[in-house]
Amino acid sequence: MTNFSVLDGSIVGVYLLVTMIAGIMVRKYVGKVEDFLVAGREMNVYLGIASLAATEFGIVTCMYTAQNGFEKGFAGAIPGVLTFLAMYLVGYTGFCVKPLRDSGVMTIPELFEQKFGPRVRWTSGVVIVLGGLLNMGVFLRTGGDFLVSVCGIDPGYHEIRITELSVIGAGVVRIKFGYLEIMMTALLVGVAVYTILGGMLSVLVTDFLQFIVMSLGLIVVTFLILDRVGWSTLVNTVQTNYGEGGFNPLKNASMGWSYVIFNALLNTAAVLTWQTQIARVLAAKDSATGRKVYTGTSFFFVARFLIPGIWGIAALALLTPEQIGGDTLLAMPKMLSIVVPAGLMGLLVASMLAADMSTDSSYMLTWGSVIYNDIMAPFRKVPWSEKKGLFWNRTIIALIGVFLLIYGLWYKLEGDLWTYLGITGSIYLSSMSVLLIACCYWKRANSWGAAAAIVCGAAIPALTLILQKVGPYTEWFTQNGTVCGVATYVIVALAMVVGSLLKPRF
Amino acid sequence: MLNGISNMLTNHWFWGALTIACLAWYSTITIYVAIKGAGDIREMLRKLARGKHSNA
Q: What is the CATH number of the domain that holds A263?
């Protein structure tokens, strides 16, 4: 039983309608591929901040950060603090992002071609898309889980029968479906429609609306929780369940130094190369604007982890083990379904839909841009017309949507969500960040080093994922995902250095 | 309200202060970005429309 009422449904409906109309209306401004992929490079600071913040907070973010709060206490918010530091420093100094934006490229692999050659560009594109899409694969199901839990919808499967008449006789076709799958599909189709039509322009405009709705929902619900539960109860709950480890990551049995170091490396690499983040730098008017977007958004990443983390701690304080069930990922939405009153529930669901839609649209567009710009590039012997380019970009986004539906429906997640996202993200983050730093600042870096870094960066996280599922050490690899993560970054950096030094200089 | 803030700053002050900073930052930046961002959108669309006409 939840507090989701007709009023709440109306709020959600109006929000969805306004977003869709806004997203579709700007399609008339798209005339070239550059308009579609990087909004004609006309994005200014405040729109960039709204767009970056909205993109980097989806339902999946809210779920895993709340799970971190539930399972690790306040210490679970430490990745947010590390991201803030990394993004602020990168924005302030312009480390890598300045030369990247000044080069005028549309994607990171395009820059790599200038230093390492076309093969490295193509391979980088493949690695980026592979890591990004695997990472995004869990978004839809997690978002669906949240909405089903909060709205109190029966997730059970239903069967419909369709009487079929044909020349060979009459029969009955049975189709099984659940509300979660229907909601996931409807959400994705809605997002895909405006992303396909308007590209980055639609993404930026809808992100702006979504940022406002999302922020409003997050602030109001957090004040409500602090009022209902109280700070002392939150602190006491963490103290009782996790002791000092709930406040200090270094004293937490499930975290420690390897967790902190892995997250520092992971988040710095994400700030430098994560396609959705770097797309804002590339869409900015100039490198100074891109850097201001980074410094201006940086503190948002603390809120991104801490606010849902507090929701997770509130779930720990308010729910009984029977109410939580076996899945800690669903504790936070179950708590919200009880605590948030009718009327506010509509704002909460609208804000979470806003968060999810902005993330999905941006992810589909930015990974699609790499497929078009870098993976398909060698197959274009003659430059394509703008019309043909736009057609292929739109087709790629539609295909990514289909892939997400299939992978999002069938993949069963092992371990905690943040670690899964970290490992799949590391498939490209480790190698791409090393390549980018070497490309910008190390003259001796060359294609041999780049190739070695890409191979190690993709192989080690993929091997970790496999060893978590099969073989005699599944338990060790599941428990020590962060150690494997740190090892990946170290080995990739060494591979770049050794590979580059081995290549003869003529 | 003041009691609540005082409690957050004395009971595990680091996380309390960070939570207050997040809520304060979020509340103010949302309004500021909402106003300035709308101007950015208008300017961006105007420039794109102008560029489209000049290309045509």
A: 1.20.1730.10
| CB-defined contacts A:B, below 8 A | 107
Note whether A35 contacts B: Cβ–Cβ < 8 A: yes
Residue B7 lies in a domain: no
Using CA atoms, how far apart are residues A506 and B18, in angstroms rounded to an integer? 55
- Decide if A269 is inside a domain: yes
Task: Identify the bridge partners of residue A165 per DSSP, sorted by sequence position.
Answer: A170
- The CA distance from A328 to A312, in Å, is 9
- Number of structural domains (chain B) is 1
pTM, two decimals, is: 0.84
Burial class of A409 by CB neighbour count within 10 A (0 to 12, 13 to 18, 19+): middle
Q: Say if residues A214 and A222 touch (Cβ distance below 8 Å).
A: no
Chain B's closest residue to A306, CA to CA, is: B19
Residue A156: predicted pLDDT: 59
- Residue B50, chain A, CB below 8 Å: the answer is no
**Would you call A42 and B19 a contact, using CB atoms and an 8 Å cutoff?**
no
Q: Is A441 inside any structural domain? A: no
Residue A505 lies inside a defined structural domain of this protein: no
In this predicted structure, the answer to whether residue A214 has a pLDDT above a threshold of 90 is no
**Signed CA dihedral, A437, A423, A475, A470: sign only:** negative
Q: Does residue A120 form part of some domain?
A: yes
Alpha-carbon separation of residue B25 from A90, A179, A373, A397, A445 (angstroms): 20, 37, 37, 35, 41
Cβ–Cβ gap A302/B22 under 8 Å: yes
B53 touches chain A (CB under 8 A): no
Provide the residue type at B2 as one letter: L
- For residue A348, the enclosing domain spans 6-152+183-410
A4, pLDDT greater than 50: yes
Predicted local distance difference test score (pLDDT) of residue A496: 96
The C-alpha of A231 sits at a distance from chain B's nearest C-alpha, in angstroms, of 6
Q: Provide, as residue numbers in chain B, all residues whose Cβ is less than 8 Å from the Cβ of A41.
A: none
Please name the residues in contact with A381: beta carbons below 8 A apart, sequence gap of 6 or more: none
Q: Cβ of A44 and B43 within 8 Å?
A: yes
What does A96-131 look like in DSSP terms, one character per residue?
THHHHHHTT-SSHHHHHHHHH-HHHHHHHHHHHHHH
| A363-397 tens-digit pLDDT | 888 888 889 888 987 777 788 888 888 999 999 99
Our count of domains for chain A comes to 1
Q: Is the CB of A216 inside 8 Å of chain B's CB atoms? A: yes
In B, minimum Cα distance to A204 occurs at B41
pLDDT above 90 covers a percentage of chain A that reads 32
Instruction: For residue B27, give its domain range.
Output: 22-56
User: What integer pLDDT is reported at residue A111 of this predicted model?
Assistant: 93
Residues 6 or more apart whose Cβ sits within 8 Å of residue A363: A55, A132, A136, A139, A275, A276
Phi-psi region of A105 (alpha: psi -120 to 50; beta: other; left: phi over 0): beta
Look at the alpha carbons of A26, A29, A33, A37 in this order and tell me if their dihedral is positive or negative.
negative
